[in-house]
Amino acid sequence: MRRPSDTRPVTVIAPGHGRRAILRTAMRATLGVLLGLATVGLAACGDEGSSGTKAPASVSGAGCAPVAGDKLVVLTDDKQLQTADNIIAAINTKAADPALVAALDKVSDALTTEKLIQLNKAVVVDRKTSKVVAEDFAKTENLTTGIEKGKGGAIKVGAADFAESATLGALYEIVLDAAGYDASVQTIGKREVYYGQLTKGDLQVVPEYAGTLTEFINGQVNGKDATTLASGDVDKTVTALKDIGGKAGLTFGKASKAADQNAFAVTTAFADKNGVKTLSDFATKCSGKDTVLGGPAECPQRPFCQPGLEKTYSIQFGKFVSLDAGGPQSLDALKKGTATIALVFSSDGSLG
Hints:
The chain has 12 helices and 11 strands. It is of the alpha/beta class. The chain is globular. 52% of the residues are buried.
């Protein structure tokens, strides 16, 4: 087991919500184009000023005005608008001996979205390091108990440059050390960079997201117009990932129950007042002119954002307000009552 006093190099970057949001939105934006849902153009605008608000020409239904509140809740995506972005270990096949895969699966078995939110809160909100947070979680969840020893040797874990990936990388390091490997974490950055290093074997393991990685490899192999392989069904998505990823020299562990994907949140005060738990509930009760959608500037064009809500759930919005991509502006707009519903990320630490 790795001890707190160990001095092996572990690079941890824990940026704020903004940088993480930009990265995750870029990935989702790429996936959204690949999915090929019908993109809805901007409606004719009403009054539009420096606030970035946009109002459609005509909307039927009364809708639901925002309700301010300190706590937020994600509405269940019951029609699976978003793809299944469950966390999964991507492994260079040459390094994927059974003991290594089994050790990584211990992390997947322990994680849920609720626990991932708490891990992210500890880093981003409480300002602890990913290393400390991972060590505390591993101890609480007994991650190293019963781990069998593998063949050993150096294992380099790659992580993207946002806090969640750094924490997952640190968890991978802990279980791999317990399995007899000499593991270290290296923060790489963009998928376009670390994917090549993983397939070449310069990196052996990377914490990944099932749907996003499936479509990334799909685009690499079959081109940007390839038929979509990822969906809201995690089992089907992972099956597709293992098939296409296997041909690229990758092996995968278990998909965790924890997922980090686009989601839409309201305040708990709003949810209680209007009796909504799912996006279908929201569509039934809150489609109309008083409803304000908050999201990044590109939301009205992105098929996973406003067009997806309109097409999949038949929700009409009276106004769109341009905010950041799931970051502090979006969270504040909900809490202050200037947005009825807004784009967030399902594992955001602010939801904890």
